[in-house]
Amino acid sequence: MTDSNNPIEVEFEATSEGRYHRSELITWWDQSALLSAKVLVVGAGALGNEIVKNLALVGVGNLTIVDMDIIEHTNLARCVFFRPEHEQKFKSEILAAEASRMNSDVKTAFYTCPIQELGDGFIGQFDLIVAGLDNREARVWLGAAAKRTGRVWIDGAIEGLMGKVQTFVPDGPCYACTMGDKDWEALTKRLSCKLLGVEEMEGGHTPTNATTSSIIAGVQAQEAIKYLVGKKDYFAIENKVWRMMGEQMATFFSIVDISEDCPFHYDFIETKASAQLPTTIGQIWKSAGQSDQAVLGFYDDFILIEGCKKCGGKSKIGYKDLMKRQGMCKSCDTELNIELFSRIQASDTVSQMAIIPEYWPLKTLVEFTHDGNATRYLLERGTK
Ligand SMILES: [Zn+2]
Ligand SMILES: [Zn+2]
Predict the structure, then answer these.
(1) Where are the domains of the chain?
(2) I need a labelling partner for 105 at 20 to 30 A (CA). Which of 46, 268, 269, 282 fits?
(3) pLDDT tens across 83-112, in order?
(4) Distance 141 CA to ligand 1 centre (A)
């Protein structure tokens, strides 16, 4: 609706009418900043569809979408981009294609795997991360990876007519800071179930609907826009949670504090260089040009699973998140011994072990410490 008595609007209407003209009437809008922005959207379900819809409409120029799930019939009632002919196709693939179709200014990419498989080095490539996830495990991982790489991320969650949005910044509380003992227990249990191949307890059957996801993702996208154009003073949900109780249409903020015991707070260390993932652990020192005295450290859980004592078989080493079903002997169903390695020396026997690329994320950050100095190094494996 326009007001013909308002001279400002009349003046603008007489001038150019580019695609983003109405957005650019907002005094602080910066379309070029949005067009050059690189945003990672994690989750392509009800929230992900709405997040991508908003970011693509306003012309965020580069969207990368990650989701491992396929489109099911019930998604059609909540996801604006999904049609009956898309059923059984990957959510991230369809969402990426449809976003570019809606606005050809938007370049998209997609990945059909859990976010943990892409690695913290992958997270570090983006200006901002916006998440619409359905499980705590992925949120904890993403929160830690964002902290480590100094990235801001905006989390959204929905249940019934309720929803919440929280923006995490590198020097503030992280997702895990808000977790209590019970949450940690549930998370540890879920991770070990995955290793043993036991069916996961948490499923995607949370009650949700299209209106709740649209409101929550709308708030996430709005905060994303402010961040991307550098409008920091309007950035409203930093270090707090914005909650909506849809039944009463009540909204409120709650403050989140940094937890002193949280294990995911890292000092920022510059990433020195990168290299292709070598074939043995020991070769990582050479690839990184490090002396044998340097200690190699891993950020996420890095484990050794021993071969079966009854059936023989080789031990395997890799990232716990990616070693699904490897904790059990395939022949005799015995639970295998697991050892956690957060730091390795070049002289340790595990340094002789072969690297199995499928147990390594696409882009992983590792840390070398030598004489009290820490340096960070990026290891990249070839795409599958
Ligand atoms: Zn924390
Ligand atoms: Zn066995």
Answers:
(1) 7-255, 271-380
(2) 46
(3) 999 999 999 999 999 999 999 999 999 999
(4) 11
